[in-house]
Amino acid sequence: MNLMRDVLQVVARGKLSVFLFHKVPPCADPLLVGDLGEAQFSRLLDFIKETFCVLPLGDAVQHLHANTLPPLSAALTFDDGYPEWRHGAARVLEEKSLPATFFITTGQFFGRPMWNERLAYIVRVCTEPVLDTKAIRLPPLSMQTSKDKANALHALEFHFKYLPPIIRDEFLEQLETQVGVSSSDVPAMSVDDLVAISNRGFEIGAHTLEHPILGLCDVDRAREEIGQTREILEGLINKPVTSFAYPNGRPGVDFSPQHIQMVKQAGYRYAVTTQWGVADSKTSSYQIPRFTPWGPSRPKMALQLIRNFYSRPEHLRDMA
Ligand SMILES: [Zn+2]
After folding, report:
1. Can you give the three-state secondary structure of 121-176, one letter per residue?
2. Ligand 1 centre from 23 Cα, in Å?
3. By CB distance 3.0 to 4.6 Å, which of 42, 167, 177, 206 could disulfide with 229?
4. What is the pLDDT of residues 90-139, one digit of tens each?
């Protein structure tokens, strides 16, 4: 452990590691392969706390550009907005006295849950042995075992991710009708959950209204997705919202320099991507890379972290 820390001290000088998490269900969910359950998440946080100086993301970005970053600095972030967070991830963070930023998709406060949660719900409640997906131009998907369901969800997510938002909604409604559910049945984060997390001292950041791929939106829709979500969040938590997470988050694939401009114009001070790697003093405040170590053992986590220091995140041209 000490040797590993010594190695990290050298490779991490002047660099900021930002970690990315999603739902953190109470137990690992067989449908969501790769999503950490609470026990594994807690072990991962212990490792991060022992290894890094964990700062609030905003403070870390300021230190980064002032060249005053403490050695082995890191920040913790969570994307999307899940009802599990309030009594799950946020409680575990509190027990370990760790700061974090939660990036929220706000459509779910107005009866529009995230598309991936709608898909997961369809797959979870489907009682047919096979899901007929002809109407959405996919081959039929077996639903017999939990492994079948996990594979089906993976195939559906892959198919839906890059659909234009209007078509994605149409297809979702078709599948919901087919299995006899409605989007209002899907578990979603409530305003109460949001305010509770904010009042416990965690930073709230914006993650659009409905989590579209910004590159698939027309200019007006992209501007709305970026700007309106900030106004909504500020109205709900009564605090300034200064950080933004790009949906899906890959520079040049999911967002472009035009979207970076929109994020700046909407008044955000910094933004995070999903590119692996670490930030240094030359990294744009609007393209901070993030990484999720997946473990499961400590030596494996250490190797994943060291490798992440050598990832070179792609950087888009960032006009001043
Ligand atoms: Zn997201």
Report:
1. HHHHHCCCCEECCHHHCCCCEECCCHHHHHHHHHHHHHHHHCCCHHHHHHHHHHHH
2. 10
3. 206
4. 999 999 999 999 999 999 999 999 999 999 999 999 999 999 888 888 88
